[in-house]
């Protein structure tokens, strides 16, 4: 069920890590990369203690509806700067632009292939405050936002590598980009930043791994990363944010294989297909994943082309995973029912096109840092004039 009540989250400073505990690391000195540890709040606890869980079946409310970004391409992900009241949205750079250092305008196919991204800075109502261009970074499937005083550092994939487009896996002419490393850098309005440039710090957390993305847990002070390991398996890890900033990756708080929705008991494959992972966040001991496809998407099922995301209905699901076990929590029943986990959502179902794109963690009140909501992004509009929407869920289940 979708609710269209408009919410304007408060623009207050967030005491992001208050009450989360402190971490002491012997032998680690502060001050590497672009900022020292002294610039940041106390990091979260090193233990995945019991934490609140989002009620996946709580109402979805309209926070931001069909707002424009810097470019006209589809939003890929977004993240909240809860301390300063800003939202950062990532998208693949549109074709036809000539940026600084380029001799001519670059096509959309080349932007996608090279991994060129555009970051739009919004206020909490979706009004554009600034932008930044990233060349050679990747696809922008997830973005982490780390406040530091009055500014924000962004965590993204970097060192983009050309790969087959998962939407067109059998067409060798269709390619995209995925990052082989992670990067951290300050948002600088109007800047064109190249992967590997001075001003950003690069990380390779796991030897031989590729396809990196990241997301910041603003409640417990952690960094969730996703990558493809040397066996080709997609893995999620959670690290203390202070240690990640220092380049220390040997002490993950959690490491789990990515669950596949098609492996859920009773999952109706012929109805919803194999939905794409479109975003993720971690808060405390829980990982949340957003899956789905744009309206009218077709997949081959039992040898037949099948519409898996019917207009007005879609195949968008939000799932919670307990990071201490790697299992869906709450556990799904069999046969599949859409009222539990994974939870089907009809949020923003009246949008045209409607493709789910990204999750973000909103902490509305600094006096209650453990009370959070999760926003779900959706792209809509016609090709060449895409717009972005965010609906959110606020219901929480407290640990027993």
Automatic annotation (TrEMBL):
Record InterPro entries: P68_RBP_TagC-like_beta-prop, TAT_signal
Database matches in PROSITE patterns: TAT
Domain of life: Bacteria
Residues spanning the signal sequence: 1-37
Keyword Transmembrane helix recorded: no
Keywords, comma-separated and alphabetical: Signal
Pfam families xref list: Phage_RBD_prop
P68 RBP/TagC-like beta-propeller domain boundaries: 74-392
Name of this chain's protein: Teichoic acid biosynthesis protein C
Organism name: Streptomyces poriferorum
Organism lineage string: Bacteria, Bacillati, Actinomycetota, Actinomycetes, Kitasatosporales
